[in-house]
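Many introductory courses stop at the sequence. We go one step further.
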Amino acid sequence: MGAMPTKTTMTVPLLDLKAQYADIRAEIDDAVRRVMESARFIGGPEVSGLEEEVARYSQVPYGIGCASGTDALLLSLRALGIGPGDEVVTSAYSFFASAGTIANVGATPVFVDIDPRTYNLDPHRLEGAITPRTKAVIAVHLYGQCCDLAAVKAVCDKRQVWLIEDAAQAIGAEWEGRRAGAVGDFGCFSFFPSKNLGGAGDGGMIVTRHGDYADRLRLLREHGARPKYYHALIGTNSRLDALQAAILRVKLRHLDRWSEARARNAEAYTRWLEGSRVGRPYRDPRARHIYNQYVIRVEKRDELKQFLADRAIGTEIYYPVPLHLQECFASLGHRSGDMPHAEAAAKETLALPVYPELGEDRLRYVVQAVREFVDS
């Protein structure tokens, strides 16, 4: 691994958005000023411009901005008319929105265990979870790596169910050369500040190949009204603010540079942790991994987290309780042991800092601390 830094202590946050802002301050400030001077805060050219740019970046024709990544999933389900009596299959191991949105439209989430290497939904278990009541599959691209989209899409096509890609952590990720969001019927992105493409607050977007559904989604996000005050559908208020759109348009120009820097940091971690008792992330050779998180696996995860915190190293547990064991889903009747791979991941995984501005000294400091713990 080479010589360690002479400095014995330093602070390494899980994410440093101040460093990101410092790098592009002039561009961001110009974009914010442009919106403030225009006084067009809802809709307008900033939002439509971002929609076009994200759609193009994601290799699809249509983009529909909305208020959050959660709303992107929720609006997609509503656009498909999914509701009470329907089932939607998704991963047992993800952020809550992947399943919470299903329940919020009145449908029933059906959970599938994960591939223990990628932490994504195991496509070999997917078809067995589909019933005559299944209307859609929400396939999650966890930590910045696409699930096996070819296999998942084949099952969805065979069983004639919709495919929604939960790409909240995966904008710019690829599967066999196709971008996240370009394979399914809908791709759902989050612009939460911690994402690779993060705003200065909440925001989200849906991308799709279906022009008729793009139009329906635009209606649903604005109370189902066209023209104003004439409501064809019962929609909601889920607009993307022009200020957020302007900021995101600036950041989109830097996204590939940042994702490549994350990948370089991930490669350094993987190389320097070789030979240790640390489970390192698996990157499928068919995928472009954008490393929204760099997630390691250790037996004494909670003790390692505290050990690193004592050394001013930020970490996070994504996610401590798998979805099928959440209290709010107790009525579904799941028990410990039902999804063993998801349950093991919830006990053993830990995300390390991987943001682009990290720098070699901090990377080495994190590796030194992790190895000190696991190798002792």
